[in-house]
Automatic annotation (TrEMBL):
<dbReference type="InterPro" id="IPR024671">
    <property type="entry name" value="Atg22-like"/>
</dbReference>
<dbReference type="Pfam" id="PF11700">
    <property type="entry name" value="ATG22"/>
</dbReference>
<dbReference type="GO" id="GO:0012505">
    <property type="term" value="C:endomembrane system"/>
</dbReference>
<keyword id="KW-0472">Membrane</keyword>
<keyword id="KW-1133">Transmembrane helix</keyword>
<feature type="transmembrane region" description="Helical">
    <location>
        <begin position="365"/>
        <end position="383"/>
    </location>
</feature>
<feature type="transmembrane region" description="Helical">
    <location>
        <begin position="327"/>
        <end position="344"/>
    </location>
</feature>
<feature type="transmembrane region" description="Helical">
    <location>
        <begin position="7"/>
        <end position="36"/>
    </location>
</feature>
<keyword id="KW-0813">Transport</keyword>
<dbReference type="InterPro" id="IPR050495">
    <property type="entry name" value="ATG22/LtaA_families"/>
</dbReference>
<feature type="domain" description="Major facilitator superfamily (MFS) profile">
    <location>
        <begin position="1"/>
        <end position="419"/>
    </location>
</feature>
<feature type="transmembrane region" description="Helical">
    <location>
        <begin position="188"/>
        <end position="206"/>
    </location>
</feature>
<keyword id="KW-0812">Transmembrane</keyword>
<feature type="transmembrane region" description="Helical">
    <location>
        <begin position="303"/>
        <end position="321"/>
    </location>
</feature>
<feature type="transmembrane region" description="Helical">
    <location>
        <begin position="82"/>
        <end position="101"/>
    </location>
</feature>
<feature type="transmembrane region" description="Helical">
    <location>
        <begin position="107"/>
        <end position="134"/>
    </location>
</feature>
<feature type="transmembrane region" description="Helical">
    <location>
        <begin position="395"/>
        <end position="414"/>
    </location>
</feature>
Length: 428
């Protein structure tokens, strides 16, 4: 991994997060999520329910394929090729969203594109995350992970700003607004953004060192080792505890982001333009949190950073369920987002610390993805069911906070070497 200057490698790695961030920000969170529930689906409630089911389906598929692909890559090598294939799966699905017409007949086509694109994004992230263990010095794990998340948030901000200013607001391309072309163009825009800014990752970052086996043999060995890893996982108590905790609070975070724009539009009456501005400001604070608080990860520990950030999300999340004025909601949501980035970046670096010296990094990050997705259907499903049952988005959103409480309780017993180092440094 040292054939090029480390700064170039790290920069190219971070820029991939910049590239891929356009999909979750524009497609699954703000523009297309809101567009689908307000223009494509029959009504907002049914649209929320359908979007939740599609998100859940994608999560189930990702959960059961990520570890297997990771294990296969550890034997077959060519991590960059795997990343390239899944990246382009997301890119093609994004481009096809141009055909997501504002009519009920486009419901299943739109949802299919979103599901396929999400699978490409998330499975590709397994291979992307595995690079962190190879490019980051141990004493910079937290900061480099935070810089990656922060770069991604900045990319999301810029992409969403362009979508707002150039397409939705100014309609600089003179598109047909009666057929929602100024909104549908966001799909091809994501595809171009994703393809263009992911190029440095593929050209400037060396592949992860490996001794590749033929694909058929890699599949057989990968499947065998994955089963062996799952069998011995109960004996790896720290990793197992963390994966279970991550499984719970990641479900909460994914649901929070997937339905943030929908909740803002449906409960507080934010217009489509306001939802986009809300998304931009949310990403600004999340990016600042990931970058500015990344030093806490390296100096006070990844586990400490995750727990404190989750507690802060709870503190600022509760008032959002009861506020009536949209600007009060907006302000509280921005403060909450300041702690979302640190949870995500510190979780990734904590996984690297826990698996240090155990080998099979991609397989382990496949399990990390599994923990983030295996119950991913529960959050959206529960939110959708409660929203439908009580005819209230507030009740549906309230279910998200329970995932953070459970995550905190489950991660507390996890023991990390960094904790001992922290106590040693404090004693000195």
């Amino acid at each position: 991994m040292q054939s090029r200057h480390p700064v170039i490698v790290i920069g190219a790695w971070c820029l991939y997060d910049w590239a891929s961030s356009a999909f979750p920000v524009i497609v699954t969170t703000f523009i297309f999520a809101t567009y689908f529930t307000t223009k494509v689906a029959e009504n907002t409630i049914i649209g929320t329910y359908q979007w939740a089911n599609a998100t859940a389906l994608a999560g189930i598929i990702i959960a059961f394929t990520s570890p297997l692909f990771g294990a296969i890559a550890d034997y077959g090598g060519h991590h960059k090729r795997w990343l390239f294939c899944f990246t382009w799966l997301a890119i093609i699905a994004s481009a096809l969203l141009w055909f997501a017409y504002p009519h009920h007949s486009a419901v299943y086509f739109t949802l299919a594109c979103v599901v396929v694109g999400t699978i490409g994004l998330e499975v590709g992230t397994v291979f992307y995350n595995a690079y962190l263990a190879y490019i980051a010095p141990k004493n910079y794990l937290g900061r480099i992970s935070g810089w990656g998340w922060g770069t991604g948030y900045i990319g999301g901000i810029l992409a969403l700003t362009i979508a707002l200013v150039v397409f939705v607001d100014a309609n600089a391309l003179g598109l047909n607004t009666q057929n929602a072309e100024e909104i549908r163009i966001s799909g091809p825009f994501v595809a171009i953004w994703y393809a263009l800014f992911s190029l440095p990752m593929f050209f400037l970052t060396p592949d992860i060192p490996s001794q590749p086996h033929p694909l058929r043999q890699a599949i057989r060995f990968g499947f065998r080792d994955l089963l062996a890893t799952l069998k011995k996982l109960p004996s790896e108590k720290n990793i197992l505890l963390f994966l279970v905790a991550h499984m719970i609070y990641a479900d909460g975070l994914n649901t929070l982001f997937a339905f943030g724009g929908i909740y803002a539009a449906g409960t507080y009456g934010l217009s489509f333009k306001e939802v986009l501005i809300f998304g931009i400001t949310m990403n600004i604070t999340a990016g600042l949190g990931a970058i500015l608080l990344s030093w806490v990860d390296d100096y006070l520990g990844s586990k400490f950073t995750v727990i404190v950030s989750l507690i802060c999300i709870l503190i600022f999340g509760l008032p959002i369920l009861f506020m009536e004025h949209k600007y009060g909601f907006w302000a509280m949501a921005l403060v909450l987002c300041l702690f979302v980035g640190p949870v995500q970046s510190a979780s990734r670096s904590l996984m690297v610390r826990l698996i240090a010296g155990k080998g099979a990094a991609t397989e382990m990050f496949g399990l990390y993805a599994l923990s983030g997705k295996i119950t991913a259907f529960i959050g959206p499903w529960l939110l959708g069911e409660m929203t439908l049952a009580f005819d209230s988005q507030r009740v549906g959103m309230a279910t998200v906070l329970t995932f953070f409480v459970m995550g905190i309780l489950l991660i507390l017993p996890v023991k990390v070497k960094e904790d001992r180092l922290l106590r040693s440094n404090t004693a000195n």
